[in-house]
Write a structure and sequence with these properties.
Elements (H helix, E strand, L loop, with lengths): L1 H4 L26 H15 L3 H19 L8 H4 L7 H18 L5 H20 L8 H23 L6 H9 L6 H15 L1 H9 L19 H20 L2 H8 L14 H17 L3 H18 L9 H21 L8 H18 L4 H14 L21 H16 L3 H8 L4 E3 H7 L4 H14 L1 E3 L5 E3 L3 E6 L2 E6 L6 H21 L4
Antiparallel strand pairs: 1-5, 2-3, 4-5
Helix pairs in contact: 2-3, 5-6, 6-7, 6-9, 7-11, 9-11, 11-12, 11-13, 12-13, 13-14, 13-15, 14-15, 15-16, 15-17, 16-17, 17-18, 20-21
């Protein structure tokens, strides 16, 4: 289980530091192509040319990184300062890219590097919060900024929790930089961006037709800046993710409440934002027994990925899209095993799910040791990489505690699974009858009536949850009530969804056209 869980949840794992350019790295040497890149990027940011900024950010930066800095850092901010007039805000943005590249390409990173990156984020967010930022930046960059901020916090917590093989110098650095990536500091910056941007109020006013945030994709076409508003918007998703990593699912969902997931929004514009939002939203609902909400959202995003993943094959995020796709199929398998809701699943998603997890889902219905092993395996593969946010006590015997939070969440999850052990049998019997006496059902299940009543109450409890509005909602696909020792079963009827049929045919047509375009005619 540990090997699946040990994968980083964020950017691709850092590549080993190779020989060659990295060994002779001179932070003050700036190649001509980098000078040109910095000059043009600076000019486009000053001119608020979002299209050109995005081209350089998504294209130029990646190409230069692959060609010149595959296993070495970019030139230092001080070295490129002459090519951007020493602009303070631009250099903060440049350093943000510098550290992100270092996290993705270089290994190992020291506590000193991690602390410097933290300080740069503090300076950058402080300028956004307290200064006058007259810029328009692409949504992709602003999302990556928040996403990377959360990832580096998560990475630092994992690094700090692996004490066993740390050298004396590494332990000394942890003591020296003990204020870096403090959980309260991370949460406070994200919350401050949400509050200062007034994004919750903007989204509320938008419902009344008084604002146009979603319609303009968050951009300001009146000569203003989109940076604070969009950072505030994405910070709500960042807060959801952090609270999921901490195991505080209720607070995480509360942070996301201003965003209406039933409509297109700014979160759907960037594929990474879209997937991260639904993954963490679905996982939080799963852990809070809101199985219907989890199943609905997993179904929607998996259908979306199925239809559109071909358009992201050249994206640097493509591998992560595929990984999250596989994880969400595993979570959907868990959700449907605990609370069958097949009427909510699209036919294409259901087909994919059966191909991947049909055997495991059959096992999970049995609730024996094999079933627990299947739940354990899928949960360990698909869960976020939980963190322990508190700093270590360095004067005690050094041990690794980076898996403690994961083990706790796994234990709580499997405890919930075991509590539902007998519910599967109850469900099987009740699905066969419209009415049955308690005496007869107790005989079938080989238990006394008092125990059966207790199990029926447990089923009612486990198949209900409290939604975001405080209402108690049912997750079951049928309900029952007891009147004079007779159980009456009421099964919900699924509405016919004619639109799904046409969507499936359109998808098949698009796949056929794509195949035909590959055929070369003589």
């Amino acid at each position: 289980m540990a090997s699946a869980y040990d994968r980083e949840d964020g950017l691709a794992p850092p590549q080993p530091h190779g020989g060659g350019p990295a060994d002779a790295y001179d932070p003050n040497y700036v190649p001509d192509s980098v000078k040109t890149f910095v000059v043009h990027l600076y000019r486009h940011i000053r001119d608020k040319n979002v299209y050109e900024i995005n081209q350089m950010y998504e294209g130029g930066f990646q190409r230069l990184s692959d060609r010149l800095f595959r296993d070495s850092p970019w030139p230092s901010a001080e070295a490129v300062a002459p090519y951007c007039d020493g602009d303070h805000v631009f250099l903060l943005l440049y350093r943000e890219l510098w550290y992100r590249h270092a996290y993705a390409r270089l290994s190992p990173l020291t506590a000193s590097h991690r602390s410097e990156s933290w300080n740069n984020y503090c300076d950058l967010f402080s300028v956004v919060l307290h200064g006058v930022v007259n810029m328009q930046l692409p949504n992709q960059w602003l999302w990556d900024m928040v996403d990377e901020f959360v990832y580096q916090f998560q990475s630092f917590c994992q690094y700090r929790a692996k004490l066993k093989n740390k050298t004396e110098d590494e332990l000394q650095q942890l003591k020296q930089f003990d204020k870096a990536w403090n959980v309260y500091g991370v949460l406070n910056y994200l919350q401050a961006l949400v509050e200062k941007s007034m994004i919750a109020q903007i989204l509320e006013r938008e419902k009344e037709g008084l604002e146009q945030f979603t319609a303009t994709d968050g951009y300001d076409y009146q000569g203003g800046s989109n940076v604070l508003k969009v950072l505030g918007y994405y910070s709500m998703i960042g807060l959801l993710r952090i609270h999921c990593l901490l195991g505080d699912y209720h607070t995480g969902l509360k942070c996301l409440a201003p965003i209406n997931l039933n409509q297109q929004g700014v979160y759907t514009i960037v594929i990474g934002s879209h997937i991260s939002t639904i993954y963490h939203y679905g996982f939080a609902n799963l852990m809070m027994r809101r199985y219907v909400d989890a199943t609905k959202e997993f179904n929607k995003i998996l259908l979306y990925i199925l239809k559109y993943k071909q358009y992201h094959q050249k994206s640097p995020q493509y591998d992560q899209i595929l990984k999250k796709n596989e994880q969400m199929y595993a979570l959907l398998a868990i959700s449907l095993s605990l609370c069958p809701q097949n009427r909510l699943i699209d036919e294409n998603v259901s087909t994919q799910l059966k191909e991947k997890y049909n055997d495991k889902m059959t096992k999970m219905q049995r609730f024996d040791e094999e079933a627990y092993a299947a739940y354990d395996e899928l949960f360990s593969y698909a869960c976020p990489k939980f963190i322990t946010p508190s700093p270590p006590v360095l004067d005690q015997p050094l041990t690794n505690y980076n898996q403690d939070a994961y083990r706790l969440q796994l234990k709580l999850f499997l405890y919930e699974v075991k509590q539902q052990q007998l519910l599967s049998g109850i469900r099987s019997y009740l699905k066969l009858y419209s009415a049955i006496t308690i005496t007869k059902l107790a005989q079938y299940m080989e238990m006394d009536e008092a125990t059966l009543r207790s199990i029926l109450l447990t089923y009612k409890h486990k198949m209900h949850a409290v939604d975001n509005n405080g209402k108690i909602v049912s997750s079951a696909d049928f309900d029952f009530y007891i009147n004079e020792d007779v159980i009456h079963v009421v099964e919900s009827k699924s509405a016919k969804r004619h639109g799904d049929y046409f969507l499936r045919q359109i998808l098949k047509f698009e796949e056929t056209m794509a195949e035909l375009e590959k055929v070369q005619l003589d």
